Every structure is written in C-alpha cells, then in structure tokens.
Amino acid sequence: MDKFVRNFIIASIIYLGISSILGIAMLHQPSLLSLKFVHSHLNMLGWVSMMIYGVGYHILPKFAGKMIKSPKLGELQFWTANVSLIGMLLFYTMNVLDPTPSSALLTTLFGVVQFFSIGLFFYNMLATLLPASPPPQR
Ligand code: HEM
Ligand code: HEM
Fold this sequence. Notes:
Elements: H1 3-28, H2 36-63, H3 71-97, H4 101-129
Helix pairs in contact: 1-2, 1-3, 2-3, 2-4, 3-4
Bound molecules: protoporphyrin IX containing FE (2 copies).
C-alpha cells in the first residue's frame, strides 16, 4: 500500500471521530448548529471522500490492470486536501464566532485549494483508467 493511500484512510477515520463528537455536541447544545457546515464537511470531505480517495487509489487501478498514473500527485493531493479542509473549517468557525472579512476570505481561499485537490484526483484517476490497456502477453 502506498504511504499516501494509508494516510488518506487514517485521516478519514480521524475525521469521522472528530465529526461524531461535534455531532453529539450539536445534539446536546443546539446553539452549536451554527457549525453544521463544519460537521457535514468533516464527514463528506473528510470521512467519506478521503476514504474513497484512499480505497480508490489502491483498488481502481488494480481492477483495470494498471499502475496509478502519478503517486507523486496522489501525495500532493493528500496534503492539499487535508491542509485546505482544516483551514476551511477553522476559518469558517472563526467567522461564525467573530465575523471578519479576512476570515471569510480565508475560508473561501481554502475552499478553492480543496477544489484544486479534487481536481488532482479527477486528473490522476482518469489519466490512469482512460488510456487503453496494452494487449495481454502470450
Ligand atoms: C455520532 C454520529 C453523528 C451525530 C450525533 C450526528 C449529528 C448531526 C446533527 C445534530 C446534525 C444537524 C441536524 C440539523 O440540522 O438539525 C447533523 C447534520 C448532518 N450530518 Fe451528522 N451526525 C453524526 C454522523 C454523521 C455521519 C457519519 C455523516 C456522514 C457520513 C453525517 C452527515 C451529516 C450531514 C451531511 C449533515 C447536514 C444535513 C443537513 O444539512 O440537513 N453525520 N448531524
Ligand atoms: C470544494 C469542496 C466543497 C465546498 C467548498 C463546499 C461548500 C459548501 C457550502 C458553502 C455549503 C452550504 C452550507 C450552508 O448552507 O451553510 C455546502 C453544503 C453541503 N455540501 Fe458541500 N462543499 C464542498 C464539497 C462537498 C462534497 C464533496 C460533498 C459530498 C461528498 C458535499 C456535501 C454537502 C452537503 C451534504 C451539504 C448540505 C449540508 C450543509 O449545509 O452543511 N460538499 N457545501
């Protein structure tokens, strides 16, 4: 298993733990529902997407009898996806607690980096799966 694959899976499980604690806190204290976006994206971009990236990078090329196009881009995606998710949710939270133009702007900028990380998966996976396979050797 590539290191970035393992890291995606470990990170996704950590996000599930954190988002569930926030979910319980929101149930207990309805004023925390202002952080619903943080809970939903810890889950959807953290737990769900990162688990899919990890398992997908590991399994999908094998199903197609191929090697991943670029493990280096996979590694870059791991770092950009994680730094931007944490940055986006941190500045979103700061902007809920104390709204300022700079925290709103930084939330958006980290969101754009998250979008870039999604683009890395889009490119790497399609560039792996789309080219025709060589004919089997006899
Ligand atoms: C212990 C586990 C969890 C608890 C206690 C919990 C709790 C909550 C609560 C209180 C809300 C706000 C509901 C409202 O708007 O009134 C919420 C929203 C949400 N949760 Fe969870 N959650 C948990 C796990 C998960 C998981 C594992 C996922 C995804 C795989 C998830 C996805 C979402 C999403 C997408 C929303 C936003 C839904 C919407 O806008 O209507 N949650 N959750
Ligand atoms: C660049 C990545 C993404 C950005 C910047 C983003 C941003 C947003 C924003 C601004 C909202 C509205 C929140 C509100 O009403 O307060 C939202 C809602 C939502 N997004 Fe995303 N999103 C992204 C990716 C995703 C992905 C990949 C999924 C699913 C796999 C997802 C699932 C949801 C869900 C379920 C909601 C409704 C729940 C909620 O309001 O929190 N998002 N998203």
